[in-house]
Amino acid sequence: MRKTLLLVPVALLLGACSWGITLDDAARNVRTVWSGDVSSCHELGKVTVSVMNRVGPINRNDIKVRDELEVMARNEAAKMHADTVKPLAEPSEGSQPWGAYECGANRPSAGRPSAMPKPAQSAGGNAETFPIKG
Length: 134
Hints:
The chain is about 25% helix and about 25% strand. It has about 130 residues and is of the alpha+beta class. A hairpin with a 2-residue loop joins strand 3 and strand 4 (about 60). The chain contains two helices and eight strands, in the order αββββαββββ. The model is unreliable at about 115-120 (pLDDT under 50). The strands form three sheets. A four-stranded mixed β-sheet has the order 1-5-6-2. Strands 3-4 form a two-stranded antiparallel sheet. It has a two-stranded antiparallel sheet with strand order 7-8.
């Protein structure tokens, strides 16, 4: 029983980890396009990035995994001198392919991931609510 009680906090802490994945300075200028048209951009290549999506038998939070995949794709795109990335498929087992593009002034709007709802306007019109990434 004590071992079980000790494992629960450890599992919770591991699930909250960011695994040290941070956005590089050069990648701050790389825009993510979720559903925009990149046909006016120059394709520089494709990158496939991977992160841990499980810790032993425990699945990591899907939103955190997706966020880390995006950060890694932007970091890799910056190394290719791209200014835009777009996911080419949904994540699978912690891996996701991304296209890297140079759009310059033709940058498409970033849009929102289809899984994220649009912000709701309050009745008074003075505030907006946004979904919280967990």
